[in-house]
């Protein structure tokens, strides 16, 4: 029984609903996808509920579930995954937040939630507020792309059940973090104190003085949101006995992979945006599998999700057709011993502009896959054999790669 | 509401994957099966995960699950089912093993794991070592076909968590049974002592002296493996209120049936091998249902599984076509009040040479079944209505035979 390797391609938010201007087809039905359809004809196909029927999954909760980590047990908020995605050191029990650098006036009213989409200087700003200790809690900050940052609290008695400081709109005063459960009182207190102290430091920082001189909005406050407690995730490599890597552009998914012990392969073209280098991602993934001895590689392509959020069906069709080209490239370079799974983490219907709980198409291709598909889309795949949940996926992959343990004789 | 009777035909290891030399069809897709297809057109069809998606089931764990006994609760190893299959008296709490008669040299190095596939004399050999008592543990041995035997330990404080004595290869010294959990220390000690004592008796036994004289390998040791604790299985007849029988050739499945209170119908043609008399099994099953007043009969045909393990797709096609002939015979003699379920206990793909976690096709035929199938194979059945797990099967049978209890008003 030859063990195979696995390439899991997650087309983020791919699933959609019927769209009037596409003749009541989904973008995936409407798009010209000769390569995806060719793979479907050689694959087991079907539908997957990322979590359970009708459940609207986030990208984080879905990726956790797909990788075999029950989000109902390990997920309290996206903060720790964002922080890990920025290569912050995260330990189980830490409480972490996403943050924006923002601009406030002297009354702490938000003038710009993104501080003029600040591009330079956040590293210096972060250095001035990183490592502050309040009571017994150490506080770490790291900058992300543009106005983005993450915040980690480490200490005793912390809780993820605190409300956001970010008021999520301008012309509003920043919010006080509130404890959402009694045990979060300390965390809220420390968070509020940190935001205040950071404001006092940031508003006087030379980077901001320089920005003001140039007529740019100062990044004079940090607005935390999305509190979550860092979970212990069983190491993926031990759990499945597969050396694992990922090629993903978005920090959130990168952070989930990092916390699971899945090695991120970074390359400049992976942007997590419309302009992402899709062929490049496929090339890096196959290189990792074929030459660098990885047994499992996760690729995430985010652009489909963005088009869904932007409610742009034609754009989603265009993104899907670019993905199809990359799949043509995959077919050219695919070694025989690799099982390819193509699916989505959730649906992001253009008619909704956000994630929905609709099932997503899935196909599992191996040389010996039952060849049962016709086309790769939400409707055609429903005629296939697979009707699984996200939590079944890893077991299906272990089976298709001939790595599953036998239960019984 | 007329109660019907049920014939459950398990085509062991029937499910498969696409095979290059069969034009990327499965053996079941490739084979000419006019009778199975005819039944499909009159049946509800679909796919079944014997345990759960991607889980690689053994024949034992799957049959337990199909019959309504949760293998995660009742299964610790195949030993007790093998022993029961040889008609040994088994009680809950007994720890049992499969064994081989083997040939060892004076250093207990294995020269032949099957003692030259000994055919005669094992009954005499077994008689010399049956009924030994070590500490408070009674030890029973019974011979099977050729070199096969089973061993039962009965006493206090026994555990199934001991490693195999059988080294599973020649030129290796026999292994010491080791406790895999602390509570198995006594069981390992007694098992090792028994193997030693049995060796002392067997090597001097007249049957072996005679074999040596003839230049045959002596069956001078018994090599236990596959320890398991006999579970309490709720009596099938009480559980479902159906008088039940089985027509099976393999001791393992026969043993599961016996422990569940399903009466084995033995007839000489049921061999559990390629040469099994398939029409004979169908004839015996229908006889039991129509004339002997059984309400439920399980038929297992093992030959499909053997061809999968042997990695012989053409042979599997040939076996399937012979099964189809037997199904033609079934259609000729089938009384109207019998529901026929045809499925498999797991897939045994020829490309893998072992069980896989791929779903299996299933069809449920009754005179009043929703007629929805086209052909009976893994791909065509995926278009049908059934997408069930093995643990759902008995409830489906109770429903189709109009025997299910109503829940509510």
Automatic annotation (TrEMBL), chains A, B:
InterPro entries named among the record's database cross-references: Alkaline_phosphatase_core_sf, ApgAM_prokaryotes, Metalloenzyme, Pglycerate_mutase_ApgM
Reaction(s) the record says it catalyses: (2R)-2-phosphoglycerate = (2R)-3-phosphoglycerate
Enzyme Commission number: 5.4.2.12
Keyword ATP-binding attached: no
Enzyme class: isomerase
Protein's pathway: Carbohydrate degradation; glycolysis; pyruvate from D-glyceraldehyde 3-phosphate: step 3/5
Top-level division of the source organism's lineage: Archaea
Pfam families recorded: Metalloenzyme, PhosphMutase
NCBIfam families the UniProt entry points to: apgM (TIGR00306), PRK04024.1 (NF003104)
Family note: Belongs to the BPG-independent phosphoglycerate mutase family. A-PGAM subfamily.
Role this protein plays: Catalyzes the interconversion of 2-phosphoglycerate and 3-phosphoglycerate.
Descriptive protein name: 2,3-bisphosphoglycerate-independent phosphoglycerate mutase
Record gene name: apgM
């Amino acid at each position: 029984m030859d063990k195979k390797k696995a390439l899991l391609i997650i087309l983020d938010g791919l699933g959609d609903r019927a769209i009037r201007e596409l003749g009541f087809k989904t973008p995936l039905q409407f798009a010209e996808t000769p390569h995806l359809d060719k793979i479907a004809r050689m694959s087991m196909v079907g539908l997957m509920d990322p979590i359970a029927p009708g459940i609207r999954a986030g990208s984080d909760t879905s990726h956790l579930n797909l990788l075999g980590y029950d989000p109902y047990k390990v997920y309290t908020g996206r903060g720790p995954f964002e922080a890990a995605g920025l290569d912050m050191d995260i330990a189980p029990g830490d409480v972490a937040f996403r943050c924006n650098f923002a601009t406030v006036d002297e009354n702490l009213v938000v003038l710009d939630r993104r501080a003029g989409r600040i591009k330079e200087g956040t590293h210096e700003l972060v250095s001035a507020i990183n490592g502050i200790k309040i009571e017994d809690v150490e506080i770490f900050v790291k900058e992300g792309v543009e106005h983005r940052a993450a915040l980690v609290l480490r200490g005793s008695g912390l809780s993820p059940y605190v409300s956001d400081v970010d008021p999520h709109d301008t012309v509003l005063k920043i919010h006080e973090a509130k404890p959402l459960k009694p045990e979060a009182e300390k965390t809220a207190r420390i968070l509020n104190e940190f935001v205040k102290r950071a404001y006092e430091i940031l508003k006087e920082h030379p980077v901001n003085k320089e920005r003001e001189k140039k007529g740019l909005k100062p990044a004079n406050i940090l607005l935390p949101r999305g509190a979550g407690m860092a979970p212990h995730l069983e190491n993926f490599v031990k759990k499945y006995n597969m050396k694992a890597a990922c090629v993903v552009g978005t920090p959130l998914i990168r952070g989930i992979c990092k916390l699971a012990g899945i090695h991120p392969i970074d390359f400049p073209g992976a942007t997590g945006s419309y302009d992402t280098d899709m062929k490049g991602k496929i090339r890096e993934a196959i290189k990792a599998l074929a030459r660098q001895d990885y047994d499992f590689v996760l690729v995430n392509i985010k652009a489909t999700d963005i088009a869904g959020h932007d409610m742009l069906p034609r754009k989603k069709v265009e993104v899907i057709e670019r993905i199809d080209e990359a799949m043509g490239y995959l077919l050219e370079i695919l070694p025989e011993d690799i099982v390819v799974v193509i699916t989505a983490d959730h649906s992001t219907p253009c008619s909704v502009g956000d994630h929905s709980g609709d099932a997503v198409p899935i196909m599992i291709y191996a040389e010996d896959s039952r060849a049962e598909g016709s086309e790769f889309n939400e409707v055609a795949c429903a005629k296939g054999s697979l009707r699984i949940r996200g939590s079944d996926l890893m077991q299906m992959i272990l089976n298709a790669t001939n790595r599953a343990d036998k239960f019984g004789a």
